[in-house]
Design goal:
This is ABC transporter permease. The protein contains 12 helices and no strands. The protein is mainly alpha-helical and 261 residues long. The radius of gyration is 19 Å and the shape is elongated.
Length: 261
C-alpha cells in the first residue's frame, strides 16, 4: 500500500474507534451538550424579555435570534472538551504506547480524534439548533449560500478548537486536568458577544470581549443566519480559525512525536 492509502486506512480505523467509544460512553457527550441547551432555555425564557428590552428590542423573539448563534458556538467549545479528556485518557492509560509499537500510520491516532470530534460537534450543533427552532428561532432572511457558509464556518471553528483541545489533552497528566485545561473553550464564549453586544459592556471590558476568537466567529455566524452585515468579522473569524488550527496541529504533533519517558 502507498503511504497515502495506509494513512487513510489507519485514520479511518481510528475514527471508528473513537466513534465507538462515544457511543459506548455517551454520558460525557450528553453532559457537555446539556449545558448549552440549559443556557439557551434560561436566557430565552427567564432573561429573554429583560435582555430584549435592554438591547432596544421589541419582544423575546428578537433576543432568540440574537442569542442562538452564540449558543451554537458555545456548543462547539463544550463538545471539544470531551476530546481533550479522551486524548488524555489515551495518553495516560497506555494505549498510545501500544500504538507506537504497531505498524500503523503515526498521524492516524490524532486524525481519528480530530475527525471524530468535528463530527460530534456538528451533530451537537444540529441538536441544539433543533431545540432553538422548537422554541422560536427562525432564519428566514438567510439564503441557501449563507446557510452553507454558516455550516462551513462552524465546521472550521470545530476543527480549530479540536486541534487545540488535542494539544491540551496530550499535555495533561490525567482526565481531570484535561477537563480543567480545556475550560477556557467554554468560558470564552461567555465573555464574548454571545449574550449581549460588545458596545453594551463596560468600556474597560470591551477589548477583552472584542479581541478574542469567539466574538468575530459569533458575529459572522449571526450575520449569515440572520442575513445581516458581517463587515470585517468574516475574515477575522477565518484568520483566527486557520491560526488556531496550525498552532494546535504543530503543538499536538510535537508532543506526540516526543520519545516516551
Amino acid at each position: 500500500m502507498s503511504s497515502l492509502s495506509l494513512a487513510v486506512r489507519d485514520s479511518n480505523t481510528m475514527l471508528r474507534r473513537n466513534l465507538l467509544h462515544a457511543r459506548r460512553y455517551p454520558s460525557l457527550t450528553l453532559n457537555l451538550l446539556l449545558t448549552p441547551i440549559v443556557l439557551l432555555l434560561l436566557f430565552v425564557y427567564i432573561f429573554g424579555d429583560v435582555m430584549s428590552a435592554g438591547m432596544g428590542g421589541g419582544d423575546r423573539s428578537e433576543y432568540i435570534a440574537y442569542v442562538v448563534p452564540g449558543i451554537l458556538m458555545m456548543t462547539i467549545g463544550g463538545t471539544v472538551v470531551g476530546t481533550a479528556v479522551s486524548v488524555s485518557n489515551d495518553m495516560t492509560e497506555g494505549i498510545i504506547a501500544r500504538f507506537r509499537t504497531m505498524a500503523i500510520h503515526r498521524g492516524s491516532v490524532l486524525i481519528g480524534h480530530v475527525i471524530g470530534s468535528v463530527l460530534q460537534s456538528v451533530m451537537s450543533v444540529v441538536l441544539v439548533g433543533a431545540v432553538a427552532v422548537a422554541i422560536g428561532f427562525r432564519s428566514t432572511d438567510a439564503t441557501v449560500l449563507e446557510w452553507v457558509a454558516a455550516l462551513g464556518l462552524m465546521a472550521l471553528v470545530a476543527l480549530a478548537l479540536t486541534w487545540i483541545a488535542v494539544g491540551m489533552g496530550m499535555v495533561s497528566p490525567n482526565a481531570e486536568a484535561a477537563s480543567n485545561n480545556a475550560l477556557p473553550l467554554v468560558v470564552l464564549p461567555l465573555i464574548s458577544s454571545a449574550f449581549v453586544p460588545v458596545d453594551a459592556m463596560p468600556g474597560w471590558f470591551q477589548p477583552i470581549a472584542e479581541y478574542q476568537p469567539f466574538t468575530p466567529a459569533i458575529e459572522t455566524l449571526r450575520g449569515l443566519l440572520l442575513g445581516t452585515e458581517i463587515g470585517h468579522n468574516g475574515w477575522l473569524a477565518v484568520a483566527w480559525c486557520l491560526g488556531l488550527t496550525v498552532l494546535g496541529y504543530v503543538w499536538s504533533k510535537s508532543v506526540f512525536n516526543r520519545d516516551p519517558k
